[in-house]
Amino acid sequence: MARSRNIKPGLFDNEILGEADPIYTVLFAGLWTLADREGRLEDRPARIKKNILGYRDADSCLLLEWLNHESFIKRYSIDGKNYIQILNWTKHQNPHHKEAKSVIPKFIKGQESEIIDKKQQDTNTKPMDESSMNHEQTMQNASCPTDSLNLIPDSLNLIPSGTTDVDSNPPKKITKKFSKPEPQELIAHFESKGSNSNEAEKFFNYYESNGWKVGKNPMKNWKAAAANWLKNNMTTPPSHSGQPADNYATAAASKQRLTDTDW
Length: 263
Fold this sequence. Notes:
Distance between the termini: 64 Å
Shape: rod-shaped
Number of strands: 6
């Protein structure tokens, strides 16, 4: 099954591929989409041609042999089955973490038979674009975060930015814990708004009885709740000469009870 992969500018700067027929570049990049998360796939030339080269008149066996000879891939055989390892895979690709693990055995030098002799003694240590890129370009490409980190396997759809969870955990949003107001603080707040300790006691008793919830949701800001309370429930403010007996006769007693409450 084809998968989304990352392409870096270094692919087109490579002198070996740049001097060869473009079909080699197409085939090489196409192999990435067929490879598993470890850069391995079955060496089945006919199927590879169908999936990558389509109806082009090309010999996929010869093309794969050329890529193997030029140290872009390693063709090997284990227990009579042929496989391909794309060299320097982890340097140039970061498959999505949800991709299934590889079920293809890893190539280990000396333990498996190679389909075609290697061009060099140890191709696994040769960078794909070593012949055409200087050290600065190589380091720049190696440090670039790959686009495939944001791709869902087998899809061209981007993962929403809020869920790009690679292996690291996203920072958690810090929420300030709600705490009930202190007695003196609550009384002072109500009095500063032109109310009194009697209303403060009513406010406290009401929300204490319902678990300090606004509707069905936990209270987040008691001052905002107090503002709504005063807007809907505050009686006529006291005059400068004193408190009306009918509305504020018990204010002093309420203030004392509220202050004595076990919070």
